[in-house]
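Worked example 2:
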Amino acid sequence: MQYEIFGGHLPAVTIKLGTGDSIITQSGGLAWMSDSIDLETNMRGGFMKSLARAFSGDSMFIATYTAIKDNQELTLSSTLPGEIRAFELDGSKTYIGQKGTFLGASETVEIETHLVKGLAAGIFGGEGFVLQRFSGTGILFAEMDGAIKEIDLQPGETIKVDTGHVAMFEESVAYDIERIRGFKNILFGGEGLFLTTLTGPGKVWLQTMTASDLARRIIPFIPTSSSTSSSDS
């Protein structure tokens, strides 16, 4: 399957489809497409799997786009400034992603929920209890926020990450949290109470921006009803 990722840090991906080729994406993920592509929207995998997808940050509905002629093009765009990464899955590796990582994939890619082990990791890990799990074969397009750093962790090697900056990691990587030590560090460090720990072997993808940080920066500039009323008067 041929594709082109473009747009810098406001990225999109254009995928070229031949007759009978299909791409799945979450409902609402389309930017534009050629005329000879059919759309079918359903709760892929049944109601329970669809409900689990909703808890992991995606829509309950999956859209399947199938080309009915050769040389058709479909474009998917990211929802936040960042990067789109393509992963070629061959059945040998499974990937775990943050909520909202899934952008599009071949029909043969399995998209499931991944429950974080441990109460503390689920509450304080920055991603919640439910992540996204990608396996099977085919191509996966993942959207990540900000600029991306890929790190290949060796067996037993650990990296500590501020909560929310973990975009994706291979399933072989152990995911946990640890509490920041020291009263002054907790009170004045500005990093919260916990850090996420990732321990190899395996690759991890870290993001420089998080959706929650972006929202916190934007919210003070959004006019409220009270401020609008006072300015009108």
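The radius of gyration is 20 Å. The CA atoms of residues 94 and 135 lie 5 Å apart.
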